[in-house]
Amino acid sequence: MQNIRNELLELISKAENILLTTHISPDGDGYCSALALQRIISFLGKSSLLVTDNDDLSRYNYLQDGKIQEKRFSALQEEEQTFALAIILDCNSYDRLGERRVLIDKTKKIIVLDHHETENGLIKAELSYIETSFACVGEIIFSLLETEINKMPFSDRLFVCNCLYTTILNDTNNFTNSNTDRDVFIFASKLVNLGVRPNEQYRNFFLNHSPEEMRYIGETLSTIELHYQRKILIMHSTLAMSKENNIDPESIINATRWVQGVTGIEVIIYLREEKEQVYKISLRSETIDVNRIAVRYRGGGHKQAAGCYFYGTREEAKDKLLKDVISALEIHNG
Predict the structure, then answer these.
(1) What are the C-alpha distances in Å from 133 to residues 111, 140, 181, 266?
(2) Where are the beta strands (DSSP E) in 199-277?
(3) What is the 8-class DSSP label of residue 117?
(4) pLDDT tens for residues 6-50?
(5) Do residues 126 and 109 lie in contact, with contact meaning Cβ atoms separated by under 8 Å?
(6) Smallest Cα–Cα separation from 63: which of 197, 191, 205?
(7) Least confident range of 33-37, 267-271, 297-301
(8) Contact yes or no for 161/187 (Cβ under 8 A)
(9) pLDDT in tens, 301-316
(10) Residues 38, 32: Cα–Cα separation, whole Å
(11) Which domains can be identified in the chain, with CATH numbers?
(12) pTM
């Protein structure tokens, strides 16, 4: 760990300009880890640019404080800017970078910090630290840079800690997922000691839903189907649902959290229509390794939570995913 820390700090100190990014459809771990790391890098005397796609990230407005250097890929592309160093968070696969891969391909040196299983198209990097024992990438950043965080001015340190606490909330589902272990609570307690207020962060991240969001979730839940002796739950959201409720699905939390823990369900399959014949798939299970399934569709994640994209009709997606999930369940059950 000390060697990783030293190498990370050396690469940052020598870089003329730094790119920060994460996977497509950024979540509360990848995006908020990037926000935290950018502020730490600034404390170290370096500037960095956080690059995302045209995602609706308004659900993280509570973390914005006017100091974030962020740009959309579409705007950056016109500038033909290159970077000395790219730091990729919560992602170890070229497949999950989307169009931003062209930026990475032109970058001189690359750092990967991730906690997912290795995926298709593993990113080639000067420094690659992929450790699945961590609950979130925020935990990796704190483990590597705790000394620097403790030295930061209070306002910047609190910003970093609030971002890192959000990474815990996202990837442990508020300490309810099976990746919640002793180390996660120690990490959280250190952040609280540095000023984080858990009740405020929970409210900001999980609550404050608009009536339209709740109606969208309700319409999604109304599509629930049960398969394979009621062990598989499938549900979906459509473009029409988001348009009728005037919301961007990217701006709300993954709908799977509303059905996790339903009695008797071993696998959850959620299909969210992105555009015609393009579906974002979320898979959840404490019985089978859903990452193995997601990887077949050029996606990935964790054994119990993974995602991918499917190109085709909803019925085609349901049929193929059901076959994959049933096969995995049958193998598991012997």
Answers:
(1) 19, 10, 10, 23
(2) 225-227, 232-237, 267-275
(3) P
(4) 999 999 999 999 999 999 889 999 999 999 999 999 999 999 999
(5) yes
(6) 205
(7) 297-301
(8) no
(9) 889 999 999 999 999 9
(10) 10
(11) 2-206 (3.90.1640.10), 211-333 (3.10.310.30)
(12) 0.87
